[in-house]
Amino acid sequence: MNKSYSIRHLATRMIRTMSSRLALGLIIIVIALLSFSSVLFSGTPYNDVYYPDLLSPSDQIYNPDPLAELEPRKPLRHSYQELYRLPSKFMLNEDGRAPVTVIIHPEDYGTGLAGQITAMLAQTDQPQAIWITTTEETVSEAQEAVRLAMDERVSMRIVDKQDPWFHVARQASSEFFLLMENGVLPGSHYLGTVLRLAHTPEYSRALLGSHGTVLTTTPENVLDSDLDIKCLPHTDSHGQVRATETVDVLSDIWFGRTEALELMSLEPWSTTGKVPLSIYLSTLLRYYGAIQSIVVANDPRNLATWGDTRTKNEPPTFCTKVQKLYKESSTWHSWIERGRALVSQHERLSSLVVFLSSMEEAILVKDLICRWSLSPDLSVHVAVAGTHRGLGRKEFAHLLPSEGCHVGVYDLKLSYSPRNPTELESARLAAEVSVNTFHLISSLRPKVLFYLQEPSSVFSEGLDVAKARSKTPAIVLKPEDIEHVRWLPDLSIKALENWNTPQVKLVVITNNRPGSCIRLLRSLTHAHYLNDQVSLTLNMDAEADRVTIQMAGSFQWSFGEKFMRHRVRRGGLMLAVVEAWYPQGNHEYAVLLEDDVEVSPLFYTWIKYNILRYRYSADSHLYQRMFGVSMYSQKFVETHLAGRAPFNPEDIFIETPEYELRTPFLLQLPCSWGAVYFPEHWREFHEYVADRLLDIEWNKTSLQSVQIPNSRTNRWSNSWKKLFIEMIYMRGYVMLYPNFFNFTSFSTNHLEWGTHTKQQRNSAGTFLVPLMTDSERLLDDLPNRRLPDWDSLPVLDLWANLATSAELIKRGRALQEQLNPCLLRNSRNEVIWEGQEKDLKCAKTQPYYSTHTTPLPKTTATPATAIESISISAMSVDPLNAGSPTAYGGSYATPQPTPVAAPIDIVANGLPLPSNRRSAVPSPTAV
């Protein structure tokens, strides 16, 4: 028994030993296979692989890879009742009409068109205008329909057969457009419904309609003849749409903002193979402007809320048409592919990686990280230096709140760093940082990197090398800059990628006031430049005194390059400003500063925030009519016929509930007391000034001065600002102005004693404003602590009255048509604006009169209440010595012009007077 027991015991031990060895061998094989597969899929050699230490599931803190378990973003869905519970800022105009132009493309010009006109005239919210599109062959039929309508708002728009009918919508001066075709008959509440939605945060940037299609094809079968589509409204539910739904294509009826149609110029319809309007409009706005197409819910119990009342008894056929068009034409398959991604395809989120080297940095940046993590379009990852450097994954996790901060955390496991490392130890540590961070960047492939740069920091040096090697855009700030960039999470990923793209130059214009100039330079030195390289140029006129020249030469500028320019012949303020800067490219910006200006420490922060927000966002094409950003808050408007009048935007916005009291605004006036100007518009201004100076016969004849209708711009004589106003009026350009409490600004003017201010010195305090010094207050005063969307910015015209961008463009074109008879016109004597918008004058090679046979616009009698004039004054002035006798100050003397002829007033017919719906300016008072 003992022998058999020993054999059994030995056998058992052998089996257990073999089992343990077999298990160990299997574990080794599995680890090897995993390691090999990691190397294989990472595309890097085995001996060069670095695996960052992720948070394990047992930590139960954050998902190490938010992309892994991310669900596709769900589009907005609201029932009709829920839509009406959304807060909306919609208000009718004071005349009781809605700011909408309706454009109808009729199937027939008989009962079908009559029914559509009747449906629009029966709307509870009446449109501003109703246009009927027609060709030359159907003019008489359209005229009959207009006559029967018996309403002055109904008119015709003639289009060529070869041109798309919907392009006439770009001519509308209203804020919104409504396109209708295929005989749709909207219910009487439909226009009011979409207008209300367009003023809600959820749907303010959407293209709205009542018929839509969701395309469920995939890239693999996108070229198949069969197209699987989902139609709204459903044919089996008698035209009901129970909830709003995001779609790929809208058909038959489209409602949106008129300014969004500017995107058509980026890809004209004629270059697309003439795709159907339903495909073209939805895809174009989504592709270039991130504008979604949404089918609006209706009330099944109330036919008046439907987008097409015919669907109650006649199911829509547009789905069948789309399917047929898709089978018959392959020219727009790629267009469906572009637009389809909006709904059917989940796009991978852009990722951002934040590198932290110490607990101090983590405390400083944690709020930014959490706010970034809340963005639905951004995946945030944080790489910490490691426990040996005082910041491991668990230490960082304890800093963050338990909710509302979803980030991936990676431990770089860097080696211990002695307090005073040797040069060799520093080099080794920098190399370790560079290698480890580069492998993490290669794995995550982020769009943007973010880290802090501290002096003599080995961690920063290693990150700089990894950034350069990976060629990934990076935001690199100093620790003291963090409090001034709390607005970073408000920027889009595209704006963050372009953090280093805009190059801002500071241009100081001075002459013989060294005390004023040194005050300005000191204020520039105390500003926060967010670790950017900012160049400084000092422009001195020929009369600059020795003290000014010596001061400029000895002044030390530590934020970038310093340049000095000295004129040998006196140019005067106009040429001093115009010639102070010429942009080298479309990413170079200039802050123009006269020497009696003083700036806030936060002026560069304000400029950078605005440029990135409005110039480098996904829909930056909509902002092309903004020519700059002012640092100064206007307290007066000087373009009124009665002279200078006090101005406070509060007087406008307190009576306009759709705008926040402290919202920044767009004004059709340039600021000469501290502003940043954009490159395209300044180059255009140079061309305009050159054309105007060519009209002068030097020292003999006169400069013909155009007076903008119903304004006092001529009071500035031949100043650069007067010429700039001429140009921006005809182009419909605007500048963004701050609107903080008590006119707090990022620059102020001391109205120093000079040739042009001797009589106004006692009023200097009137123009002084407080300077912004608190970054928190900057955000606190903004609506929702951020710069508003472009659609939410109020637009004020040359006289500081509320207007729309479309209205400004229309007024400018009206004046431009009268001043430029060389504009090309079509067979109906209408100006072809596309390609000619910047032709402010006839070409230099042509005489000022038209050389083609197109007749000039007919002039008709103008009512006495709408008379406006263009003043052409003859002056004997040396343009090189022309100064600027303006209340905005100036550094130079101005010889008084000697009139050689009395001013001539020419009645300009058809120019719109500014709207006085809400008076923006109190009664004028002398200053």
From TrEMBL:
Gene3D superfamilies linked: Spore Coat Polysaccharide Biosynthesis Protein SpsA, Chain A
Domain of life: Eukaryota
InterPro entries in the record: Nucleotide-diphossugar_trans
Protein name in UniProt: Uncharacterized protein
